[in-house]
Specification:
The chain is an alpha/beta fold. It contains 19 helices and 12 strands.
């Protein structure tokens, strides 16, 4: 139990345990203090939820504005590429000329606000960790990126395979034979099993792939300052617009090597093929990630897909690989933040990354698979202790304005002496909100008021456990008013969620139709509003229960088993896509680079 010698390690397990313990004991032993605790908790919770609705609305507007800008530019480019046409009498087609003028007017308006997208200047390196994923799904994910205009000159793919997967090398070779000529670089790495000190999971796979893949790029003469690493999932559909927006954000930054770029996540690839409880859980998950991005101080966490420079990855020593780094995306942000003395900031990229919901054959099997995924996600509660320890430990750094030079990597980055207290407090609050609210809100919101009402005002006198003379609500007007305010606030608590879902419904339709080019019949319908009847069960099963268990398990030294989420994929769809690609780009012999397994 040496890990628990640190006080910060006790925060995560004690918070949900205490919240469960005070549900029955609070009204009986200290009702006055308990009333104040409930009032404070519910008031803060209501404030944060209203704040999240406002931030989610801001993110929603920015996503739609980004998509609109892209569509207008694409429409103008398409018009410019159309051949000139004439009317029957041989005169120029005035309709097309008018459309051209309108498009150019639109472009003038856009240029006044943003520069047009230019060709990439960075080498965008996509790390795709995978273990026993359907090969068709991987082909689909890579194939979408292969269609980007600059893929052959500015994209690198690092297939992060696991050596524990049967025939992983042959699988990597098959993917390389199809796609290597479509990208500037195509690298396959095989992460060895049972490396001492490592914990199995996405983080250790990404760490190995990044180190060996970047080493291979350097051997091929690529300038490390031009490499942007994008960590993604095997089911992430990354659009070209994301890369363009990343380039813009890097060009606008004072120092691009202190940026971690994070997009919103969106579930629309197979959402109508999974149970409504699974679908609505991922909707709320997506909404939380989106609201998190609109942070005025740039202190927001990535989820699933994110980008950073190779320089920054080298500076912080790449990804951590121990059991406490299982939440690889959030943990890497925290590591970058603390290792650079608070200089790293998040640059939101308002381009949705389309993901697949967890999917298996059978309703109950699918629900169970989502529960397993939720347990894995909430194992990231280890970051609570990591954050508290680093926030209140002095980090030594170079004097403000100086350069930290790493001769072995050629790294030169500015650093400040310490993290500001405001940033420390903000990051700690965000981490506690992300992990402690799920582990407590379900119990307190659903049980605190009804249980207190039952204990202090039982339906039968025989059930009375508190003497009316000791009941502060009956003996004090102040506590009676406080009790009424607590009940009113609990009634108001669901309304921010209703606002979030209303914004999401409009946003989902906009992304489907304006960005993914889906028809109305393929997007969400009014009937799908019935999904939200599953919210109470989904919130408890996929949020409260797994987060509470993850917190309590921090008391144990036993490492949690990492289980990959199941996802079905129809290979026949990919076959048709790949046939089209082969007709346009005939296969050529390619060299497959398999990174050495040496440390």
């Amino acid at each position: 139990m040496s890990r628990l010698h640190s006080p910060s390690e006790w925060v995560a397990p004690l918070v949900p345990l205490l919240s469960l313990l005070i549900l029955p004991l609070g009204p009986l032993l200290f009702p006055r203090v308990y009333l104040f605790l409930l009032f404070t908790y519910f008031t803060v919770f209501l404030y944060t939820q209203v704040n999240h609705v406002c931030k989610f609305y801001m993110t929603s507007c920015k996503i739609q504005a980004t998509i609109s800008k892209w569509n207008r530019r694409s429409a103008s480019h398409h018009i410019e590429q159309q051949p000139a046409t004439t009317s029957r009498n041989g005169s120029p087609n005035l309709t097309r000329e008018r459309n051209n003028n309108l498009a150019l007017d639109d472009m003038d308006d856009i240029e006044q606000q943003l520069d047009l997208y230019e060709d990439p200047t960075y080498i965008h390196t996509f790390i795709i960790p995978n273990y026993c994923e359907p090969e068709g799904l991987l082909k689909d994910t890579i194939g979408r990126m292969a269609n980007h205009r600059n893929a052959k000159t500015h994209y690198a793919i690092i297939m992060a395979m696991e050596q524990s997967e049967s025939e992983w090398e042959q699988k990597g070779q098959r993917l390389a034979s199809v796609f290597a000529d479509r990208f500037a670089y195509f690298i396959v790495t095989g992460h060895p099993a049972n490396i001492p000190g490592e914990s199995r999971g996405k983080g250790s796979n990404v760490a190995y792939a990044a180190r060996n893949g970047c080493a291979e790029l350097l051997r091929r003469g690529v300038d490390r300052r031009r490499v942007i690493l994008t960590v993604t999932d095997s089911d992430s559909a990354i659009p070209e617009l994301y890369v363009r927006e990343v380039e813009d954000a890097l060009h606008r930054a004072d120092d691009p090597h202190y940026l971690l770029l994070a997009p919103p996540i969106f579930f629309s690839r197979n959402c109508y093929e999974v149970p409504a409880a699974v679908r609505v859980t991922d909707i709320t998950w997506s909404a939380m990630v989106m609201s998190n991005l609109s942070n005025s101080r740039g202190l927001s966490f990535p989820c699933s897909t994110y980008s950073l420079s190779m320089m920054l990855a080298e500076r912080v020593g790449y990804w951590d690989t121990d059991a406490d780094a299982v939440g690889e995306d959030m943990h890497m942000w925290l590591k970058c933040f603390f290792k650079t003395n608070g200089q790293v900031r998040t640059a939101p990229i308002y381009v949705p990354i389309n993901l697949t919901n967890v999917q298996t054959e059978g309703y109950l099997s699918n629900v169970n698979a989502r529960y397993v995924q939720a347990k894995r996600h909430y194992n990231g509660v280890a970051d609570v202790a990591y954050t508290l320890k680093n926030a209140f430990t002095r980090h030594r750094g170079a004097p403000k304005g100086s350069l930290l030079d790493d001769a072995s990597s050629g790294l030169a980055l500015a650093a400040t002496s310490s993290v500001s207290w405001l940033d420390k407090v903000t990051v700690c609050f965000l981490i506690l909100e992300a992990h402690m609210i799920p582990a407590t809100s379900g119990w307190l919101m659903f049980a605190a008021v009804p249980l207190m009402q039952f204990l202090l005002f039982p339906p039968f006198s025989a059930l009375a456990l508190v003497d009316p003379a000791q009941n502060p609500i009956l003996t004090s007007d102040f506590y009676a008013q406080l009790w009424n305010m607590v009940k009113i606030i609990t009634v108001l608590l669901p309304f921010p969620l209703f606002g979030t879902l209303a914004i999401y419904e409009q946003l989902h339709r906009a992304i489907d139709r304006e960005f993914l080019q889906k028809s109305k019949s393929e997007s969400r319908q009014w009937k799908h509003l019935l999904d939200y009847t599953n919210l109470p069960v989904a919130a408890w099963l996929f949020m409260t229960l797994p987060s509470t268990l993850a917190c309590v398990k921090r008391l144990s030294q036993v490492e949690q088993q990492y289980i990959v989420s199941e996802k079905l994929f129809k290979d026949e769809d990919t076959v048709m896509i790949m046939d089209d690609l082969r007709q346009e780009f005939p296969e050529q012999k390619v060299n497959l680079v398999v990174a050495a397994a040496a440390s």
